Amino acid sequence: LSSSSAASDVYKRQIDEVVLVIGVNALSQGIAPVANLASLLPVAILLNKDECHLSHMFLMSGVCPAYWEGSAELMELAIEHACHCFVEKNTLHKKIDTLSNKLEQRKWLDRTKGMLMDKHKMNEKDSYNFIQRAAMDNNVSMQTICENLLGQATL
User: Can you give the pLDDT at residue 26?
Assistant: First the structure.
């Protein structure tokens, strides 16, 4: 990234956050390098009113667009907004990861319950209790029990 204006500097904030603030004219290599940085630190792209049509593209790539006409107060707001967006985006990614893991665990559990119900003629409650009890007895997760049972069933 080239630094073509004072807005292209990296600012060190009092709360030890590093925020990359760049002008849209510094994007000679396109949005990809900036989007990669946006996963590591807050990034604010400063747009003037003639560039506002670009804001959606930046939002979709994880970069926070801010409208700026040269005032220090607006620069501070752009930095605050970039920090807020960064924290919110990371929080949402963590929630997505957590929900994805829970869904994966649920799939293992449902497959294993189905296998126990078919092969051992258990009802759903008994198959769940069997998996839960085996996990507690062996001091491992229910998913580990499910993976082991399904692995043995395919042999």
Answer: 63
